[in-house]
Amino acid sequence: MKIPYVNLEAQWKEDEKELKPILLNILKKGQYIGGDEINEFEKKICKICGTKYAVALNSGTDALTLGLYLLGVKRGDEVITPPNSFISSTSSIVHIGAKPVFVDVLKDQNINPELIERAITKKTKAIMPVHLTGRIAEMNSIIKISKKYKIPIIEDAAQSIGSKYYGKKSGSFGSIGCFSAHPLKNLNGIGDGGFLTTNNFSFYKKAIMLRNHGQSERNIVKHFGYLSRMDTLQAAVLNFRIKKLNKIIEARRENADYYFKNIDENKYLLPREKKFQFNSYHTFVIQTKKRDKIIKYLKKNGIQTAIHYPVPIHLQPASKFLGYEKGSFPETEKQSREILTLPIHQNLTKKELSKIVKTLNNY
Ligand SMILES: *Cc1c(COP(=O)(O)O)cnc(C)c1O
Questions:
Q1: Which tens digit of pLDDT belongs to each residue from 106-125?
Q2: Ligand 1 — pocket residues by CB below 6 A?
Q3: Smallest Cα–Cα separation from 248: which of 38, 21, 14?
Q4: Atom of ligand 1 nearest to the CA of 61
Q5: Pair 111, 141: CB distance under 8 Å
Q6: Which pTM was predicted?
Q7: Which end of the chain is more exposed for a tag (fewer CB within 10 A), N or C?
Q8: Residue of minimum CA distance from atom 6 in ligand 1
Q9: Beta-sheet pairing, 124-127 with 277-278
């Protein structure tokens, strides 16, 4: 038995009958940019995220870039963020001309609020927590800091659609929430896609312009913008799949529950879900000192795993100019050696789950 880390073929098999006519209809109509599908998608996202506005974009990366632009982050400013994210949390900060200021993380892989306050300077213009694995960061403390210093929050919520914290929804905590609809995310398109959420009307209006070359109307350019629109085809796919999102998250939570009940916690560290959390399990990450050997052992047994992420951003060659070094963020670095992402997708069978657990516990 081979157990892949993701199984998009299984998803397509499940969707094929209903999704094919939807795709064909878009191709036939010939409206490939904009249209009703985009508006419908944005309305649905507002409901899911509990925000007044949503803007459909071409990627989570562009959601972060436009989000920083909307907050007025400029050359020379600083943005606080953790170093253990996907690269584009940081690259979006760099591309806007600002300086990423890293802050180490907690055992649960999310930014450590106690360290945020110490990293604030006169130049800090935004705090960007990342809700890694689909677990929302410690937002109560982060919001307190944000209010105390009047520094806005931009959430990297790319992994956390549908997640909650004290009942409040991912993407509704900060001034702007940034999401990805990449094929590997829980709400996934058939190519790149993303969106941002906000309760701020002027951010919303401006984001609509920015994604479309900065045009306020045809041939009138208010601000030099970007090309960051979501394709109509992606919106159509997402409108279809969004109906299944709750089920997808439920299936992932059931898989997580199985892992929590059955993986030997004397051998592996499992970051448990707290009472006030509702995690979407974009990924399921365990921690162990024997990580590299266990990956090989699992692979030998047909089980594919992943590491999110093996090289912390502050140790990437591209980050050299920032002046960080080995030892700058001990918890992040330790985790980069010990974290292991297990398959958790909604199409896993009970048999597959049981084999993964048995193999792990047998090691
Ligand atoms: C996926 C992801 C992104 C980027 O999203 P894209 O749609 O691939 O641009 C950003 N941050 C995090 C934490 C992600 O997981």
A1: 999 999 999 999 999 999 99
A2: 59-61, 85-86, 88-89, 130, 156, 158-159, 180, 182, 192, 194
A3: 14
A4: 9
A5: no
A6: 0.98
A7: N
A8: 60
A9: unpaired
